[in-house]
């Protein structure tokens, strides 16, 4: 099956609204988007509305980087999925390793956040990945299986028709160490096989599985040449419009 490539950026905690507007004006000038691929940028909450407005005449999708699982209530500092969706954001990153590591997001929370995102009509970009110790200890696939099982628990194939997964080995995030295309491919095959067991072949074949971890303009084409790598989630390289334009315009 051919899956439409999905190329996403994650700004993390960078850029004000004014800087976001500047970025999109540069990106749009630089890059007539090819229509054989989808492009998304996950921006900080305060820049969601400005970013949505800035890409209004383009197919670029704006995403949030997290949501809380309750719709409203006494949860100071949190933002709900309906609130993110009301800005015009169409997707959300869930379970990023920085959320798991620094903000205590557990697998059970990621599962609840996934439910909230789906109910709000947001495309979930579910992040999974093993640490260096887990990889070196030969437990990478056990960790991926456990993260997937916990995140997807209770959802049907129909619920997860829009699911996008990002395989992001923690040791490759922000480290300059990219997984080799072969290592990433092997993990993606494992994830797809696991999806097939949990949700059936059709959903597994349709799900886009992105690779994330030091994706750059000069490694994107090689990564994308692997049959089960359906896109990328780029952090650092998505902050620069010229670099991100080169990533999204990689030669297929
Ligand atoms: C990320 O933020 O999800 C990421 C993969 O970061 P980087 O590309 O900087 O490694």
What is the secondary structure topology, with strand pairs?
Layout: E1 6-10, H1 17-30, E2 38-42, H2 48-54, E3 61-64, H3 81-86, E4 91-94, H4 97-102, H5 107-119, E5 123-128, H6 132-136, H7 140-152, E6 164-167, H8 181-199, H9 201-206, E7 208-212, H10 220-224, E8 231-234, H11 241-248
Parallel strand pairs: 1-2, 1-8, 2-3, 3-4, 4-5, 5-6, 6-7, 7-8
Helix pairs in contact: 1-2, 1-11, 5-7, 7-8
The chain binds phosphoenolpyruvate.
The site of phosphoenolpyruvate has 14 residues, from strand 8.
State the gist of this model.
This protein is an alpha/beta fold and 252 residues long.
Can you tell me about this structure?
- With 252 residues, the chain is an alpha/beta fold.
- The protein has one domain: TIM Barrel (Alpha-Beta Barrel).
- It has eleven helices and eight strands.
- The protein has helices at residues 17-30, 48-54, 81-86, 97-102, 107-119, 132-136, 140-152, 181-199, 201-206, 220-224, 241-248, and strands at 6-10, 38-42, 61-64, 91-94, 123-128, 164-167, 208-212, 231-234.
- An eight-stranded parallel β-barrel has the order 1-2-3-4-5-6-7-8, surrounded by five helices.
- β1 (6-10), α1 and β2 form a beta-alpha-beta unit.
- It starts with 5 loop residues before the first strand and ends with a helix.
- 44% of the residues are buried.
- The mean pLDDT is 96.
- Bound molecules: phosphoenolpyruvate.
- Residues 10, 12, 168, 173-174, 212-215, 233-237 line the site of phosphoenolpyruvate (PEP).
């Amino acid at each position: 099956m051919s899956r439409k490539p999905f190329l996403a950026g994650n700004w993390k905690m960078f850029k004000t609204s004014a800087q976001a507007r500047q970025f999109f004006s540069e990106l749009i000038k630089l890059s007539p988007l090819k229509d054989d691929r989808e492009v998304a940028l996950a921006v900080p909450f305060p820049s969601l509305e400005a970013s949505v407005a800035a890409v209004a005449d383009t197919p670029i999708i704006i995403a949030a980087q997290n949501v809380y699982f309750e719709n409203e209530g006494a949860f100071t500092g949190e933002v709900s999925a309906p609130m993110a969706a009301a800005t015009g954001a169409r997707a959300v990153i869930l379970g990023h390793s920085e959320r798991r590591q620094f903000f205590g997001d557990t697998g059970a929370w990621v599962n609840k956040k996934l439910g909230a995102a789906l109910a709000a009509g947001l495309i979930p970009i579910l992040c999974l990945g093993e640490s260096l110790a887990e990889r070196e200890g030969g437990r990478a696939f056990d960790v991926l299986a456990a993260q997937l099982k916990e995140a997807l628990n209770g959802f049907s194939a129909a619920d997860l028709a829009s699911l996008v997964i990002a395989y992001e080995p923690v040791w490759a995030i922000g480290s300059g160490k990219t997984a080799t295309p072969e290592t990433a491919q092997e993990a993606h095959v494992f994830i797809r096989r696991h999806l097939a067991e949990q949700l059936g072949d059709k959903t597994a074949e349709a799900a886009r599985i992105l690779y994330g971890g030091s994706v750059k303009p000069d490694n994107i084409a090689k990564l994308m040449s692997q049959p089960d790598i359906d896109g990328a989630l780029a952090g650092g390289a998505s902050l620069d419009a010229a670099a991100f334009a080169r990533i999204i315009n990689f030669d297929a």
